[in-house]
Protein: Phosphatidylglycerophosphatase A
Organism: Stappia indica
Amino acid sequence: MSRLVHKPSQRLGHVLALSFGAGLSPVWPGTVGAIVGLVLAAGLAMLSVPLQIAGLAALFFVGVWASGVVATATGTEDPQIVVIDESFGAAAVVLALPAEPLWWIAGFIAFRAFDILKPFPVNWVQDRVKGGTGIMLDDAAAALYAILVLAPIAWVLAG
């Protein structure tokens, strides 16, 4: 990969797309990338909700650019080493849930399940939207599924 990365902006794109190296994990890189998302969410959780949303939006758009850089450099539509999409998705889900360990575990598991199983329209997005936008959008759709399943349960249980 080193010979594919020449410009500083390309190097930065690789570092970000791989969630600071999580994408190089020899075992379950997507899950490791999602764990990075939990760390990011823990940092964002200390901020107001508008700032959390702004942080997630920034992460999404940075992810579109960075994953596009790696996809172009590798000639692959959705390189396995790109895990910023999983980092974004996991962070988005847990920030939509109560800030309690059990809810975050449930959110993490639900997100990974929807990301792996790719029910419609997640699979449609993955198959039809190309480039960095497609890489990020299918995980955003999986995150939305997880939020739609868990947020109402959290709301009912809260009382």
Q: What stands out?
A: Residues 8-158 form one domain. The mean pLDDT is 94. The chain has one domain: 8-158. The helical segments are 8-17, 29-44, 49-74, 84-95, 101-117, 122-128, 131-158.
